Amino acid sequence: MVHTTMEGSLFEPTLYIVKGMCILDNDGNRVLAKYYDKNVLPTTKEQKAFEKNLFNKTHRANAEIIMLEGLTCVYKSNLNLFFYVMGSSHENELILQSVLNALYESVSILLRRNVDWRTLIDNLDAVMLAFDEICDGGVILDSDPMSIVGRAALRTEDVPLGEQTVAQVLQSAKEQLKWSLLK
User: Fold this and answer.
1) CA 95/CA 68 separation, integer angstroms
2) If DSSP codes are grouped into helix, strand and coil, which group holds residue 97?
3) Where would I find the AP complex mu/sigma subunit domain in this sequence (predicted)?
């Protein structure tokens, strides 16, 4: 897909579609966030200011998309959480929406349909893994909630890294590398 600007110049196609994903509480505070482009909102202070502004513009709105500070933002709310996916201003909203749906549905399945702040905090490790299964460095890896949850659940059943020996960590890394090469 080649994007054009109003002036007609072309943007180079890229796999780096997602600029960031975040989940905010019903006060606009960050619960979980990942930003993938260091040129866009490079510091935590700038990210949190952007998130506050984003929340203020969207928490009462009925829309599902907003252009803010040069970013296309799609969002969804549920009870006391707000889910956001951000892309560049020229990005396809439908692609961003599919990432948002994957994020929301994956979290919903992981939390057994009880998507609220307390349950999310209690299962933050699994939700963080879902973030990583959906997107890596801005590249969309998967948008199927069932496969995302399957991989995130497998990874959360592992022995915590702090409780593993060096040999176990190396063996686990070897196994992951082997399986990724066999795909």
Assistant:
1) 18
2) helix
3) 18-156
Query: Does the pTM exceed 0.85?
Result: no
- d(CA 32, CA 117) in angstroms, rounded, equals 11
103 in helix, strand or coil? helix
Report the topology of domain 3-182: Beta-Lactamase (3.30.450)
Measured torsion, CA atoms of residues 62, 93, 151, 180, in degrees rounded to the nearest 10: -170
Query: Over the chain (183 residues), what is each successive 10-residue block's mean pLDDT?
Result: 50 86 95 93 94 93 89 92 94 94 94 86 89 94 90 64 58 67 62
Residue 5: per-residue pLDDT: 46
* In the block, residue with structure tokens 């890596």: 136
CB atoms within 10 A of CB 119: 18
